[in-house]
Amino acid sequence: MSKQRKPADQREKDLRLAMFLIQQGRARHTKAKKLTISAVAEEAG
Description:
Elements: H1 8-24, H2 37-44
């Protein structure tokens, strides 16, 4: 693991943003339509 981990508050913000984008149908990186753990993880990066 050469990358530094993000702080918890930044990870939480990324996950919440990914969930919001999927729920609104505006996912950037995926074509996700359903809110699943894997879709959120993939969208959050």
